[in-house]
Amino acid sequence: MQLYHHPFSLNSQKVRLALEEKGIDYTSYHVNPLTGKNMDAFFFRMNPSGKIPVLQNGSHIIYDTIEIIQYIERIAETVSSGGNGTTLSSNVIEWMHKIQEWDSKYFALFHIPVKHRLYVSKFLRRVIIARMTESPNLASHYHRKLKEAYDTDDKMKNVEVLRQSKVHLVKLLDEVEVQLGETSYLAGAEFNLADVMLIPVLARVELLKLEEEYINSRPNLADYWAVVRQRPSYKNVIGRYFDGWRRRKTLLRTWCFIRMRSLLRKY
Question: Where's the GST C-terminal domain (predicted)?
Fold first, then answer.
């Protein structure tokens, strides 16, 4: 299996946590969306949406995050049960979809300094135009991505977009807080795939330095977060890139790449 992903991508983190928890081997390919690598023709032909992660197993290609995780679960269960795979409980699936409904994109963008956000946005638009010139047969798909980029910039001028994202996140975390008052993990007493979906959301909140408002203000959630951060899967997928001083190293490397490419006008 080949996984096209990147540590920055929240959905990529969800899939990688599932792979780590289930102990499934895969070949890793980094596709950094902040430097426009998801716009390279080889990847764009495989997935014209340009979104990550993408899981490829032979001729089977999956783009949807929840579908990838369910596919991973089926493989793991089939292997462990000798061919008699089991299905996820409806409660776990319900939580997975509930968590996936919150889109972190605009929430994160609103908490990034405007000058940095606009600089990266301008860089990515130029990357799309450059790739469009290199691969005219994919021009219609690149045009769509360029329109999406401009639409995103327009939405960032509307504070109502941020308000709605905050309301959605608060509602989700309030429900999680109530659930964690009844069970040790989401959807039960044992760590499960619903937890795999939630951990990157909490990691993104912490990365944006908003844990006091969204995590620590909820006692059950704060205790849960302290526990799940000790899991080896968290340390391998998220901790090694974003815990402590590592976050500066991870982000600085990408920022230097973008600055250098912009100065040299190599997109």
Answer: 118-252
Neighbours of 68 (CB within 10 A): 22
Instruction: Give the pLDDT confidence of 67-90 residue by residue, as tens digits.
Output: 999 999 999 988 776 655 556 889
What is the pTM for the complete model shown? Answer: 0.93
- Enumerate the β-bridge partners of residue 60: 57
Instruction: For the chain, report the end-to-end CA distance as a whole number of angstroms.
Output: 30
Cβ contacts of 71 within 8 Å, gap of 6 or more: 55, 57, 62
Residues 214-225 have pLDDT tens digits of 999 999 999 999
Q: How far is it, in rounded angstroms, from Cα 30 to Cα 28?
A: 7
The C-alpha atoms of residue 166 and residue 172 are separated, in whole angstroms, by 10
Residue 50: closest CA among 197, 148, 154, 156: 148
